[in-house]
Amino acid sequence: MLAFSYFDHNRIMIRRGEVLMYKDVSIDELLMADHGDFVFVDVRSPSEYNEMTIPGSYNIPVFDDEERAEVGTLYKQVSKEVATDRGLELFSAKLPRFVKQFRELDGKPVVFCWRGGMRSKAAATFLDLMGISTIRIKGGVRAYRKWVMSQIETLEMKPKAFVLNGGTGTGKTAILHELKKQGFPVLDIEGMANHRGSVFGAIGQHPINQKTFDSLLVNEVNQLNSSPYVLFEAESKRIGKVLLPSFLMNKKEQAIHIFIELPIAERVSHIMEEYRLHEHHEEFVEGFRQIKRRIHSPIANKIEEELKVKNYHMVLEYLLQYYYDPRYIHTAEKYGEDQKIILKANTIEEAAKAVRNFMTSQQTQVGNS
Questions:
Q1: What does the H/E/C string look like for the chain?
Q2: Structural domain boundaries enclosing 121
Q3: How many domains are there within the chain?
Q4: pTM (2 d.p.)
Q5: Is there a single domain that holds both residue 238 and residue 336?
Q6: In this predicted model, what pLDDT tens digit does every residue of 116-126 receive, in sequence order?
């Protein structure tokens, strides 16, 4: 719970002789406090919410995208007064539904807009008048973004790191997901980026932007910092359009790397199942065009011919043997033998069991160190 000493900047109003207040709290004060019973609510428009918000927040907008554009145009082209009047008219019409959505929340609402301006002020004011105790974030999501950037620059990943490594198609992500379900401390980088990390990584996905990724990453790392160790997948500096921070790349270089080795047929089968290439043929073709020049011409031409007839199994075998595996071998050679653990298996299920057994054996060692 937030202590009363945090609320030095109260907004006080009167309703039927009662003193009411919604409480303005800085992002630093809020995040340092125990906010387990709080429900974060972004009152900005849906498009703003989708671009970036505080992780775990609901979206109950004061204005939708069209209404926001209308009010903004009036503000710029007519006057602040006319824009405010129109905004009040639009908001008043939806107040019953707006209040009902807040009453249905399980917890105390913490509202915010872009910079702690009129939208969050209007929301907090009306909620207070309806008897819903509310907290408002000073500086809004812009203040939260500044906090995230300061965290990115100074954050330290404290647990000992184990990195799941191996060639394309060895099921690293699937293994991590299974271990996470079983309670192992896992940092799912590709899950946060919504991208698989290769030139084909966006197939069937909706990759997120840098701002959202940064917020999710800081949130996850802070939660995992109390664990004795953490497990994550080997990634390059860039995943799609998202850049990984230096502290994470440095941690990867210092980590113990668990290399998964599987038969190529198993890897091809896994890629077919995960990517569903028959449903995303054009995306696959476009991805190949981006890397074609990096593949020896005779092989590249063979791949093109197989793509025309949608022989994905053969295409994948060629890509693994002549494009991905040589790059993987080159990368693996960077790590010393004291950093490598090699686990050979026939199936991804066997590999997952081997990784689980290894990590279980490490729990006692890390805990005693």
A1: CCCHHHCCEEEEEEECCEEEEEEEECHHHHHHCCCCCEEEEECCCHHHHHHCCCCCCEECCCCCHHHHHHHHHHHHHCCHHHHHHHHHHHHHHCHHHHHHHHHCCCCEEEEECCCCCHHHHHHHHHHHHCCCCCEEECCHHHHHHHHHHHHHHHCCCCCEEEEEEECCCCCHHHHHHHHHHCCCCEECHHHHHCCCCCCCCCCCCCCCCHHHHHHHHHHHHHHHCCCCEEEEECCCCEECCEECCHHHHHHHHHCEEEEEECCHHHHHHHHHHHHCHHHCHHHHHHHHHHHHHHCCHHHHHHHHHHHHCCCHHHHHHHHHHHHHHHHHHHHHCCCCHHHEEEEECCCHHHHHHHHHHHHHHHHHHHHHC
A2: 4-150
A3: 2
A4: 0.85
A5: yes
A6: 888 999 999 99
